[in-house]
């Protein structure tokens, strides 16, 4: 088991945002999380790498309960990579520097080694020719592929994606999804919050529907999309499909 979440609750002040979350993700599994805006999808992902503090419950990443205050956050973040909707690249660093900064600063890798690995990751996402460019000269889709390479540079055990294509022009979505699909094929364990139902169907091993802080229903993509059991899942899917 790569991820095990037990009785997770998360509140912001009086606002309970995650309630009674119990979920497991196996090694090499791709789990897609869908649901309406405000249902707690991002907060759930952020609890998996401690971008949010857990209010109660347990979040196990492999053999470590990260809800335990003694956990080493920097070490955890090398294990759990994250890709955001808005890329979050460093604007004053080149593409190559964006990818190497984590390995150099956090993992203490030598620059030469980090550079070699970064170039091969940029090749993998189809951007080797952009290594010396700055983010501002890239399209949104290219920026997002750099962000994926940057996360992969830490050699994570799990990758979290929070609506990675939602900010992109439609014609740029496909290249990013293709990179994610390749990663899945290589056996990366992935949790993907997405509105791309085609991706969830094709690449997802499992789909989870969230609403109002609860995981309402989960199942394999065929079942969730063709035969949703819960009325809230049915209502959500009828609006978007
Ligand atoms: P989703 O990603 O499904 O759109 P979020 O996890 O972003 O949902 O948000 C779930 C709820 O938590 C929303 O009501 C949102 O306003 C609230 N929320 C998220 N982050 C914070 C925060 N840092 N402080 C207060 N409320 C927050
Ligand atoms: Mg969100």
Task: List key phrases describing it.
single chain, 241 residues, alpha/beta, Rossmann fold, binds magnesium ion, six-stranded mixed beta sheet, binds adenosine-5'-diphosphate, 38% helix
Return the average pLDDT rounded to an integer.
Answer: 97
User: Main sheet?
Assistant: 6 strands, mixed
The tally of structural domains comes to 1
Specify the number of helices. Answer: 9
Bound molecules: adenosine-5'-diphosphate, magnesium ion
Low-confidence parts:
none
Order of strands, widest sheet: 6-7-8-3-9-10
> Can you tell me the overall shape?
globular
Identify the CATH architecture: 3-Layer(aba) Sandwich
The total strand number stands at: 10
- The CATH H-level homologous superfamily: P-loop containing nucleotide triphosphate hydrolases
What is the H-and-E element order? EEEHEEHEHHHEHEHEEHH
Portion in helices: 25-40%
Q: What is the CATH level 1 assignment?
A: Alpha Beta
Beta strand %: 15-25%
CATH topology value: Rossmann fold
| Distance between the ends | 32 Å
Report Rg. Answer: 18 Å
Domain ABC transporter: 3-237
Subcellular location: Cell membrane
InterPro entries: AAA+_ATPase (IPR003593), ABC_ATPase_HisP-typ (IPR030679), ABC_transporter-like_ATP-bd (IPR003439), ABC_transporter-like_CS (IPR017871), MetN_ABC_transporter-like (IPR050086), P-loop_NTPase (IPR027417)
Keywords: Amino-acid transport, ATP-binding, Cell membrane, Membrane, Nucleotide-binding, Transport
